[in-house]
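Structure in, sequence out. Go:
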């Protein structure tokens, strides 16, 4: 059944995105919360750019996977992985506004932004599903909607917040250490 094959392809690409997320800079959120608690609000911007830099690893891994699928004749998975590799690091980077708002204890604003993001992406995906059944276009729609919505909300938080220019000099080191510990924990739980 073509419909079942499309759904399986979409689920598989989203699963691959989850697997690639193991390579993410997962400790950066914790380090950002600590930095903001210590008065280094400018660390929000630094966290965004650190995560973009670290995201190159995800992009390269996705590129390797895409090459594999392309060479084996599966263009859908190859292109889907390229989309994941190019857009996931941007989504992960922009999502740090959540950690910033958690530390600022601005939970109502954070909840409003989460609801806004969910409504926008849900309506966008509903529209995409009505317009196309092509799994690649649906994957592109999903990741593009998440990217632009999250980036937009990040920029909104940055503009609305009175960020000082202070950046925690220890944030990168703590984030690397925490990320390694998180990866080891994930790996050991998988065995």
């Amino acid at each position: 059944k073509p419909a079942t094959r499309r759904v399986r392809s979409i689920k598989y690409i989203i699963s691959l995105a989850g697997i690639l997320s193991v390579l993410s800079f997962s400790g950066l959120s914790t380090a950002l919360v600590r930095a903001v608690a210590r008065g280094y609000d400018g660390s929000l911007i630094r966290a965004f750019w650190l995560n973009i830099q670290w995201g190159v690893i995800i992009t390269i891994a996705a590129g390797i996977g895409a090459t594999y699928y392309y060479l084996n004749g599966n263009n859908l998975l190859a292109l889907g992985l390229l989309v994941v590799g190019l857009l996931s690091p941007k989504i992960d980077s922009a999502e740090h506004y959540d950690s910033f708002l958690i530390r600022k204890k601005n939970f109502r604003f954070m909840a409003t932004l989460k609801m806004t993001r969910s409504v926008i992406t849900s309506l966008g995906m509903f529209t995409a599903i009505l317009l196309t059944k092509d799994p690649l276009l649906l994957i592109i729609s999903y990741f593009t909607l998440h990217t632009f919505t999250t980036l937009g909300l990040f920029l909104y938080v940055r503009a609305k917040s009175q960020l000082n220019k202070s950046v925690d000099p220890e944030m990168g080191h703590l984030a690397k250490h925490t990320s390694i510990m998180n990866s080891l924990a994930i790996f050991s739980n998988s065995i």
